[in-house]
Amino acid sequence: MKQRKSSERAKKKKLAIKESLDWDGSVYWMNKDTDQQDGPFCPSCHDDRGKLIRVHRWIVQGWDPSWRCMTCESNFPIVHS
Ligand SMILES: [Zn+2]
C-alpha cells in the first residue's frame, strides 16, 4: 500500500517536470513557481534520452553565439537568453 502511493507520486512529479518545460524553438526552459526560468536545457538529450542537460553559452570569434551541449556536442541557436 505504502509503495503504491509513492510510485504514484513519482509519476505525478515526472509529469509536472514535463509540463513545466518550455521550448523556445531551439532549447528547453524550465518554468519555476516564481517568475524565474531555469536552463536552458538541451533538446536532443531530453528528447533522445529523457535527460535534462544544461547547455552553455558558446562564443567563438567570427560565429554567432549559440547554446552548446557538452554531452551530445550539439549547438543550438540562441532565440532568447
Ligand atoms: Zn545534448
Structure at a glance:
The protein is α+β, with helices and mostly antiparallel strands. The protein has helices at residues 2-19, 43-49, and strands at residues 21-23, 28-31, 37-41, 56-58, 66-69, 74-77.
Annotation keywords:
2 helices, alpha+beta, 81 residues, three-stranded antiparallel sheet, elongated, binds zinc ion, 31% helix, single chain
Description:
- By secondary structure, the protein is of the alpha+beta class.
- The chain has one domain.
- Helix content is 31%, strand content 28%.
- The protein contains 2 helices and 6 strands, in the order H-E-E-E-H-E-E-E.
- Strands 1-2-3 form a 3-stranded antiparallel beta sheet. It has a 3-stranded antiparallel beta sheet with strand order 4-5-6, with no helix packed on it.
- Strand 2 and strand 3 (37-41) form a beta hairpin.
- It is elongated and about 55 Å long.
- The termini are far apart.
- Bound molecules: zinc ion (ZN).
- Zinc ion (ZN) is lined by residues 42, 44-45, 53, 69, 71-72, 74.
- The site of zinc ion has 8 residues, from helix 2.
Please write out the topology:
Elements: H1 2-19, E1 21-23, E2 28-31, E3 37-41, H2 43-49, E4 56-58, E5 66-69, E6 74-77
Antiparallel strand pairs: 1-2, 2-3, 4-5, 5-6
The structure holds zinc ion.
Zinc ion binds next to helix 2.
